[in-house]
Amino acid sequence: MAEQIAEGLYRLDIPLPGNPLKNLNSYLLTGERNLLIDTGFRLDACREAMEHQLRELGVDLRRTDLFLTHLHTDHTGLAGELHRPGCRVYIGAVDGPLMEKSWGQERWDHLFDQYVRAGFTRAELEEIWRDNPAKVLGTKHLEELTLLEDGGELHYGGRRLQVLFTPGHTPGHVCLWEQERKILFCGDHVLFHITPNITRWDSMDDALGTYIASLEKIRDLPAALLCPSHRQVEGGLAERCEALRLHHMARLKDAREAVMRHPGETAYAITGFMRWEIRCRSWEDFPSNQKWFAVGEGLAHLDHLERLGQVESREIDGQVRWWPVPAEH
Ligand SMILES: [Zn+2]
Q: Is residue 251 assigned to a domain?
């Protein structure tokens, strides 16, 4: 059921069955024109929950624009179906073109090559590809996207929403900030109970460093109401930003120690030596798709350590291997 969380602002609870994220929070701002923030997967369970709650609130989609915080399919999957002619679909100027690219095979072939170089076998990657949500649950082609720039503004129901670029989780992630009522729509930039996935991206040299800088960018906003895209809120913004930063500092230490204990291994092997919260007896027991996310995180941490001059990588026989750089005295 949709929940009113402020005047003219509703949270729609969209289930994500079988996904460890559990749910997506879609937000609806009502007014002469409505703004619907994020959509859920292109999946029956999401579609039914969305349609039911929109009906409950009497929303006319012909007067509803969409805002996508970032390109991930749990946020964008239903956009094509919810969009009506003459309505807008907003997305950040960086993620918009990347989302369009992800509809083609080329990007995935390139990513596969990268993950083979990181230590995956082709067989594992083919298994992952079979149920890749980006392939099956993403939106169909969208006619026209309205690309937003950092610092831009949207006006809905007499409210002014400021566009804040917060790259890291994706290269073009966007938060919306309503200064007057002190409401922050955080997307997946700041989540509570779970930590946003940070992975390697071609278009960011250092995804983790970029993410941490984006935490700094918003941490001191005087937010009174936080609207994250998944789960609930617990505690304040600055406190959570700091906890997320510390989480990654601990992961960096963990990754560096794994490289020191096992020099010359691939990111795949190093990730297996890192500590994970998932309940599996061993790295071999990790489901393949969880390995994909885990190695992506491992790579983001290794890239950042390389940037800091603490590890180095070399490609040998088609695989990229990692070594510690001895600390200078
Ligand atoms: Zn996401």
A: no
Of 183, 184, 208, 204, the closest CA to residue 195 belongs to 208
Distance 296 CA to ligand 1 centre (A): 14
Q: Has residue 255 been placed in a domain?
A: no
Range of the domain at 51: 3-110+132-244
pTM of the model: 0.94
* 307 part of a folded domain: no
Number of structural domains found in the chain: 1
CA of 85 to the centre of ligand 1 (A): 27
d(CA 170, CA 267): 20
- CA 306 to centroid of ligand 1, rounded, Å: 25
The rounded Å distance from CA 71 to ligand 1 centre is 7
Give the CATH number, domain containing residue 19.
3.60.15.10
What is the pairing mode between strands 9-15 and 3-6?
antiparallel
pLDDT string in tens for the chain (329-residue length) = 899 999 999 999 999 998 888 999 999 999 999 999 999 999 999 999 999 999 999 999 999 999 999 999 999 999 999 999 999 999 999 999 999 888 878 888 888 999 999 999 988 888 888 767 666 677 777 878 999 999 999 999 889 999 999 999 999 999 999 999 999 999 999 999 999 999 999 989 999 999 999 999 999 999 999 999 999 999 999 999 999 999 999 999 999 999 999 999 999 999 999 876 655 667 888 888 888 999 999 999 999 999 999 999 999 999 999 999 986 54
Residue 271 CA from chain centroid, whole number: 20
